[in-house]
């Protein structure tokens, strides 16, 4: 047989096998566009702007539809009703973590973000209790945030009103807050280890949002056999984990079982309590994964939101002026902002919410998975199926938010100017897998932004019309474009 004919026959067989795999076992999955053999629907999705593609497909197939990433089916939930029904009404069934090969290569199933089953439940419960014990949502952690806000103001004053890139300056404060909880102490802003870690986290978020990582997640074999920016992510996280491991070793030497000082101490004490339990999830590997998750997530998402928020305030000086008028009227200049002020500052509160709504930081959240066979509406979703929830479709719903593509704090104000809550406000996702640190993040955003605007006038070195607020990436996360601004002391 001619070699070319043999190759053609082999390829045909592979294509037929792929088609059979895609059609068999499908049960009554939701409808969706017809997939191509091997590659699925990848050519029908703009991997630079997945959210936009999902919206277009939902117009044809409705709020619940199936896509194939490679040969694997993924069910997409689009719109508030579908997302709420799954994550809140059927929260336990949709509480699994879906496939995310790049992250799985890093975490290997440990930690909070990408673990599943018993391990995830125990780590989440332990983390929530421990974070609360160390002040999350209480006055004690508010005082830490206020102190860090004052340090941030001093650092911004050192720029002397000159044009600067705020990327890393805005990472210092949220990073130090989470470090004080998990590592016991904060870093000096000039500490080179501190700066190196922040640069690695920032680089990772940018790479994770690139089209190449979407290719890696859809075709996992790429991760092991091809060069690319995914290797930079793996290298950066290895450095972060090595740093965390050194901190764990230091804590093991100084541990006082009767006087735990931070998250790591509490975890080590729990490990000792369960040392005879062969099934215990409290191991060094789990501690390393959990602390790394808290450190990375507690730093990068908040600092990126702060940075994007300042860019939006630069672009909209009329909003900035209204916030600063409210600060002057409610707080003045002689004391630090506190969380009690928020109830008397509806416009500022609305501005912070609108920043989170508008930037839509993680547009499709992290992937979920169903923990059992689920009857959802008229469909049967098999156990283990990956679920994508379009948070964009909720945060930018034009029925809930008039002109959702416009930055307008009025989206969270009623006709009398009072703050108006919205069930559609889901920047932290919803249900069983919603962000563990939501309370801390919301406190940080209010106090940091309010403190900055209390102390500085924001000035752009370029004309207002030239300020670009379009995110530079549109897949995993929305990252603001690089920009310069001047912090002019008031």
UniProtKB/TrEMBL annotation:
Q: Which GO terms describe its cellular component?
A: endoplasmic reticulum membrane; plasma membrane
Q: For binding heme, which residues are annotated in this chain's numbering?
A: 435
Q: Tell me the GO molecular function terms.
A: heme binding; iron ion binding; oxidoreductase activity, acting on paired donors, with incorporation or reduction of molecular oxygen, reduced flavin or flavoprotein as one donor, and incorporation of one atom of oxygen; retinoic acid 4-hydroxylase activity
Cofactor(s) for this UniProt protein: heme
| EC number, as in UniProt | 1.14.14.1
Enzyme class, top EC level, equals: oxidoreductase
Major location category of this protein: endoplasmic reticulum
A Pfam family annotated for this UniProt entry? p450
Its placement in the membrane is given as: Peripheral membrane protein
Annotated localization = Endoplasmic reticulum membrane; Microsome membrane
GO BP, sorted A to Z? retinoic acid metabolic process; xenobiotic metabolic process
Signal peptide start-end:
1-25
The family assignment reads:
Belongs to the cytochrome P450 family.
- Which PANTHER family does UniProt cross-reference here? CYTOCHROME P450 2C18, CYTOCHROME P450 508A4-RELATED
Q: What is this protein called?
A: unspecific monooxygenase
Organism this protein belongs to: Carlito syrichta
Please name the taxonomic classification of the source.
Eukaryota, Metazoa, Chordata, Craniata, Vertebrata
């Amino acid at each position: 047989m001619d070699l070319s004919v043999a190759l053609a026959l082999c390829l045909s067989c592979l294509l037929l096998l792929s088609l059979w795999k895609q059609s068999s076992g499908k049960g009554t999955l939701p409808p969706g566009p017809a997939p191509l053999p091997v590659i699925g629907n990848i050519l029908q999705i703009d991997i630079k702007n997945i959210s936009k593609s999902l919206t277009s497909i939902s117009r044809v197939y409705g709020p619940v539809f199936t896509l194939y990433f490679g040969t694997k089916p993924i069910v997409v939930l689009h719109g508030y009703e579908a997302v709420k029904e799954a994550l809140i009404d059927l929260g336990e069934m949709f509480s699994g973590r879906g496939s995310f090969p790049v992250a799985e290569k890093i975490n290997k199933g440990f930690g909070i973000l990408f673990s599943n089953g018993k391990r995830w439940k125990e780590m989440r419960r332990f983390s929530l209790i421990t974070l609360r014990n160390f002040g999350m949502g209480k006055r004690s952690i508010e005082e830490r945030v206020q102190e860090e806000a004052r340090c941030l103001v001093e650092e911004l004053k050192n720029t002397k009103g000159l044009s600067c890139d705020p990327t890393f300056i805005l990472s210092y404060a949220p990073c130090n807050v989470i470090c004080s909880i998990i590592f016991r102490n904060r870093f000096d802003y000039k500490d080179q280890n501190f700066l190196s870690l922040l640069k690695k986290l920032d680089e990772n978020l940018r790479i994770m949002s690139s089209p190449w990582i979407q290719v890696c997640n859809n075709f996992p074999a790429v991760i092991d056999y091809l060069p690319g920016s995914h290797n930079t992510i793996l290298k950066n996280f290895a450095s972060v984990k090595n740093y965390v491991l050194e901190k764990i070793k230091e804590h093991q030497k100084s541990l006082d079982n009767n006087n735990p000082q931070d998250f790591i101490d509490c975890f080590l004490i729990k490990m000792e309590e369960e040392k005879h339990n062969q099934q215990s999830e409290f191991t060094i590997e789990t501690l390393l994964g959990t602390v790394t998750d808290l450190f990375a997530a507690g730093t990068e998402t908040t600092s990126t939101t702060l940075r994007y928020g300042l860019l939006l305030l630069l672009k909209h000086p009329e909003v900035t002026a209204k916030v600063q008028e409210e600060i002057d009227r409610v707080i003045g200049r002689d004391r630090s902002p506190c969380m009690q002020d928020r109830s008397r500052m509806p416009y500022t509160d609305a501005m912070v919410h609108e920043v989170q709504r508008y930037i839509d930081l993680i547009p499709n959240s992290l992937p979920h998975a169903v923990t059992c066979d689920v009857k959802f509406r008229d469909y049967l979703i098999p156990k283990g199926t990956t679920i994508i929830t379009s948070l964009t479709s909720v945060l930018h719903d034009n029925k809930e938010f008039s002109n959702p593509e416009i930055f307008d704090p009025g989206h969270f104000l009623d006709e009398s100017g009072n703050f108006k809550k919205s069930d559609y406000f889901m920047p932290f996702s919803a249900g069983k897998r919603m962000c563990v640190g939501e309370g801390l993040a919301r406190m940080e955003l209010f106090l940091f932004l309010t403190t900055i605007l209390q102390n500085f006038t924001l000035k752009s070195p370029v004309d207002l019309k030239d300020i670009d607020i379009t995110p530079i990436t549109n897949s995993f996360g929305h990252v603001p474009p690089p920009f310069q601004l001047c912090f002019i002391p008031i």
